């Protein structure tokens, strides 16, 4: 009898993990973005990578110094970009004397849960400030989140980021990026 109960419990657990655990709701979507912000504050690129679907496609448009750069990244490329960004934060912090404040805020404009509750489309904005006004990344995003193996993951992102630097106040832009 114990084996039957154990088998039933395992079957129920497997069903939840592979089927029932794939549904999502608005609370889960909001928690995903809270976890993203937490990973950014920790400067934890690995944690940020874990939030990406293995099938992730990130379409990014970045405007900096009046020039626009467009890119399309897959999971591995986006992970490398996260790691490069965290290294850049460290370099800028070192050039500022070892102290770099990072502030991040995001606003979700809309969440649309797809029929079947397997994915959600999210529109919003975010602002990342480094050293208050030294460097700012202002972004708009349209993203699709899915549940994979019981976890929320980013499947698709279309984002546009405008980068502003306070190069004239104490440090020039070349101070940040020269080696």
Descriptive labels:
single chain, 179 residues, alpha+beta, Nuclear Transport Factor 2, Chain: A, 6-stranded mixed beta sheet, 37% helix, disordered C terminus
The CATH architecture can be named as Roll
Helical residue percent band: 25-40%
- General shape: elongated
The radius of gyration is: 20 Å
Amino- and carboxy-terminal Cα gap: 69 Å
- Here the CATH topology equals Nuclear Transport Factor 2, Chain: A
Main structural class = alpha+beta
Biggest sheet: strand arrangement: 2-1-6-5-4-3
Low-confidence stretches: 168-179
- Sheet with the most strands? 6 strands, mixed
Number of helices: 5
Instruction: Return the CATH class.
Output: Alpha Beta
Q: What is the N-to-C order of secondary-structure elements (H for helix, E for strand)?
A: HHHEEHEEEEH
Count of spatially separate domains: 1
Mean pLDDT: 85
Number-wise, the strands total 6
Strand content: 35-45%
Describe the structure.
This is Nuclear transport factor 2 family protein. It comes from Acidovorax facilis. The longest helix has 21 residues, at 75-95. Residues 168-179 have low confidence and may be disordered. It is built from five helices and six strands, in the order H-H-H-E-E-H-E-E-E-E-H. Strand 5 and strand 6 (151-165) form a beta hairpin. The protein has helices spanning 2-18, 26-42, 45-50, 75-95, 173-177; strands at residues 52-64, 67-74, 102-113, 119-130, 135-148, 151-165. The chain has a single domain (24-177), classed as Nuclear Transport Factor 2, Chain: A (Roll), CATH 3.10.450. It has a six-stranded mixed sheet with strand order 2-1-6-5-4-3. It is of the alpha+beta class. It starts with a helix and ends with a helix.
